[in-house]
Amino acid sequence: RSVWLFFPPAPTTVGALPAFAWTAPNFTVVQDVPPVTVLGDTNFVAYWVQPYGVVLPGQPLALHYIVKSTGLSPDKEGIRIPTHKVDPSVGVHWSFDSALDFAAPCRTADENGTPYVNEYVCRGMSWTGAFQDVWIFFKPLGSIVGPLDMTINFQALNFVDALTTPNITILGQLHANDYTVTQPAEPAGDAIMVEYKLSASGTSMGGEAVRVPQSAVTAATGLQWGLTDNATAAEQCMLAAGYYVCELSGVTFPGAPQKKSVFFFFHLAGNLVGTGQVPFEFVANQFAAATHRPLITTVGTFNVSMTPEVSGLPLLLATQLAKLRF
Length: 326
Fold this sequence. Notes:
The protein is an all-beta fold. 0% of the residues lie in helices and 40% in strands.
């Protein structure tokens, strides 16, 4: 006949259940292991990103996790991290300590040299059922822009995979220091064309625009931009909150070493005198703003009117005092 047993496994049980002993008077004891495996859990109590959750490309990061498992892990503990998110020149290290000097390297192949599939695998830990500090050290791949979107997998035999995606955003960097000016020195009010050859730490993903202060540009003509040096085909930039804003529709800032040429056409404001008086601010979604001042030297001019006032006779001797008013 059938006998049904109903019970919850102990919270700290992981793996196969122990054998059940079936007994009765004058019967041989029968040991039977039920075909049941209890899967443990690894819980993330808290985590921190150091130094910050929003960083520039090339910034080394440390992830600090506090984990607690439901029981003692029996074997095959590991932390798996995707290789395509990590700078391979640095790799990944892990430790129970906050010091990178004591961290162990994570590998891309097992002890027999068999490569893992697009993963770094960290070994050497065990889950104890108590609170444990785990540190993961790495540097994101330099071409990534925006959310890192890197899923980390904590594993062990007879444990449910514990997945975590830390909240990390990489702010891309724009490079706007390669440029050409039609005339590096211009009288105030004369026409200027500036060609910027733009690149970035990674490919931009929208929001590409340029801002130039309204005060630096002659209002009658404003600021135009285009993808060629043909001013007649250029698009007018809009005026908003004291700036000319050029929304670079259809333009993508490429990852270095590729470059994209964008041309700007304008007349300098008449009151500008000196060098580097026109700041160009380049922006894009998930990028840090980049400001560049091209070396345009504005040459001032004098408007002189003279009304001579002569003391004494119109004809003076060399030693006589003359007074002139301008």
